[in-house]
Write a structure and sequence with these properties.
disordered N terminus
Length: 240
């Protein structure tokens, strides 16, 4: 037993003092309702062939801070032998938070960077800590004789919001598209989509109205037709 305890401290001096704590799943901070419309009630608008007369998208998302964004382009290099690291990232790129580690007694998030089997500890102020780690005792964290540096040295990583669409929650994603005017009809195309913008074929309908129509009514929509031609529709959404 005494031999075991005399060996372990030497091992920790070389590899560090703790391994990365990997989260089971991201913790979402809040649910948000997203609403998008391409019109304002009572305002005049113009839609050309193939453009939406009415577009509505309402859905819910789970929003979390599960990534860190780089404030400039950077490279991280260093290490020896199998612990050698040479990775890079670009300004504005998001790097997923994949765990946490304590560096000098302070909690640091660890991020994954493409091209490396290791993760990289980011200090609370967004600076790279100089610590590279893994998810087992043999790899984590790599300190001691290994030196890791980021260039430029003032590079920072800041929390960024990540949104996941709640596909099981109620949603609206539809549009009325102007299909043109002929001698016998003014035509629109009604389409519905999934929350992530895939067409729902069973919810597509072609609509036609008399060429001189002044008010289009469809479902809860009331649309005043100000001017119609084969190329464009000038209109106002009065009710939705």
């Amino acid at each position: 037993m005494k031999k075991v305890f005399t060996i372990l401290p030497l091992l920790f001096l070389f590899t560090g003092c703790a391994h990365v704590a990997k989260p089971v799943a991201p913790s979402y901070s809040e649910i948000k309702q997203i609403r998008q419309k391409n019109y304002i009630l009572g305002d005049k608008k113009i839609a050309y062939i193939g453009e939406p007369v009415v577009l509505i998208k309402e859905y819910r998302v789970l929003e979390s801070e599960s990534a860190l964004k780089a404030d400039n382009s950077f490279t991280i290099t260093g290490g020896l032998s199998s612990a050698t690291v040479n990775v890079f990232g670009t300004k504005g790129q998001d790097f997923p938070i994949v765990g946490s580690i304590k560096v000098n007694g302070k909690h640091c998030n660890t991020i994954a960077i493409s091209g490396s089997r290791f993760v990289f500890a980011i200090k609370p102020d967004g600076a790279f800590s100089g610590v590279v780690a893994g998810f087992d005792w043999g790899m984590s964290p790599i300190q001691g004789v290994n030196v890791y540096k980021i260039n430029p040295p003032n590079s920072r990583f800041y929390p960024t919001k990540v949104q996941d669409i709640m596909k099981d929650a109620p949603f609206t994603n539809m549009e009325l598209i102007y299909s043109g005017l002929s001698d016998d009809a003014l035509r629109l195309l009604y389409r519905e989509y999934t929350p992530d913008d895939l067409i729902r074929p069973a919810f597509t309908q072609e609509l036609s109205y008399p060429p001189g129509v002044k008010v289009i009514r469809y479902r809860n929509f009331k649309i005043e037709v100000r001017e119609a031609s084969p190329e464009r529709l000038v209109y106002t959404v009065m009710k939705d």
